[in-house]
Amino acid sequence: MGEAPPTDSAAPMPPLRKNRDFRLLWSGAAASFLSSRVSAAAYPLVVLWTTGSPLATSVVSFAALLPLLLIQLPAGALVDRWDRRRLMVICEAGRFLALATVAGAVLSGTVSVPHLAAVAFTESCLNVFYRLAERGAVRNVVPVEQLPTALAGNEARGRAAGLVGQPGGILLHSLVRWAPFLFAAVGYLVSLGSLLLIRKDFQAERKTRPGRLRTEVAEGMRWLWRQRFLRAALGIVAGSNILFQVLSLALILMIKEDGRSPATLSIVVVCSGAGGMLGALSGGWWLRRFSQRAILVGGATAWAVLMTSMALVREPLGLGALFAGTSLVGAVFNVAAGVYQVRVTPDAMQGRVAATANLLGSGTNALGSLGGGLVLAAWGTTRSVLLVGGVMALLAALAALSPALRSEDTPADTASPDTVPAETVPAGTAPAGTPAADGGRPATDPPTAPDRTEGAPL
């Protein structure tokens, strides 16, 4: 009797599109992200059209941005402590109820600035929790081998929401003033429904009891600081955040100085969004062919060239093409960053590590906004843009020469038992991306992209 032919015991992995739980998580988050973009575009419109006060508009806008600075760190610790699915369900239910009250107030003609500011603040707080929890959930519903594809799809989802959300919110407001808030409320309800249908757990079993909140926040910060590659790369990206804020203000001044209509800005935004989509969809291709260091150094160099070129180009389509290039690089950075962070960070520390990087991005964005006005007032647009390009070139050179970026750390390289939970990174999960920081939206987004509230991968 002859021997049976050998069989391959490893069954082929089904494609990601057949992963039911990931499809539900992805589509629900897409509805959530689009809702937040639509409502963010509608808040200043409804305030300005109702009160006619720019001051009232700034109050509501400030309330929406404040949570990005105030609650990132405690939110990261709480996301690691609590059940992620239950937390995300509470966030979507809370945002549905909050936006429904705004739709009702606008419909009944009882709009008040304190009410809108309170809702904007609440929605933004819940948004921070939701996005940190969703980032940590991905690696628990997707096989590690498919993380690059999954996170590239997530980046494309965020880019599409940003590209559609702002004009969608403006259009809905122009039709019926309460429509964008009702649309957002329904979107959060759809997201809530998708979460209830997912079967897999969103986190690994917690083996240690939670300690003091302050201690847990500090633990996440210490863990991140001990990762040499992450620390060096975050410094490069934080510097670029400041430069992009200056560039954002310079673009608006260029359009004004050339006597063009403010609508010209939409051309640059559309081109930039298209570049971001292309970068997101091609993120996996770059990850398969280049190392983390090559992506970071090459991307920073490309940014330096593109930024410097903006001082020499004044036509809207030319500027749009240059910003599309910066957006493409930023999207590739964000895909690589997500893969790296999700793979090398212990599951019990996902929220804290991401929150720390998010806070860094939020802080540098704020510094860039403040410093950008001072630089432009003193130097003018052309010289300021040349300065931005020169500083970016310096950052690219520092990245190329940095000893920390020559070796790609894993947690085992720098972690100690008292700072990292008793977890290990699954076998075969070598780092495959570059870290980025963000304050809401990915930190490497182009400055002209609207509503910088997308969650920030490390």
Essential attributes:
458 residues, mainly alpha, 72% helix, globular, disordered C terminus
**Low-confidence runs:** 1-9, 409-458
Structural category: mainly alpha
Estimated share of beta-strand residues: under 5%
The gyration radius over C-alpha positions equals 22 Å
Termini, distance in Å? 59 Å
- The percentage helix is over 70%
Number of strands: 0
- The best one-word shape is globular
Output the helix-strand order: HHHHHHHHHHHHHHHH
Mean pLDDT: 79
**Helical element count?**
16
Report the sheet with the most strands, covering strand number, pairing sense and barrel closure.
Answer: none
Overview of this protein structure:
- There is one protein chain.
- With 458 residues, this protein is mainly α.
- It has 16 helices and no strands.
- Helix 2 runs parallel beside helix 5, helix 9 runs parallel beside helix 14 and helix 12 runs antiparallel to helix 13.
- The chain starts with 19 loop residues before the first helix and ends in a 44-residue tail after the last helix.
SSE map:
Elements: H1 20-51, H2 54-70, H3 72-81, H4 84-108, H5 113-141, H6 147-175, H7 179-197, H8 213-225, H9 228-257, H10 264-281, H11 283-289, H12 292-309, H13 316-344, H14 350-379, H15 381-401, H16 411-414
Briefly say what this structure is.
The protein has 458 residues and is mainly alpha-helical.
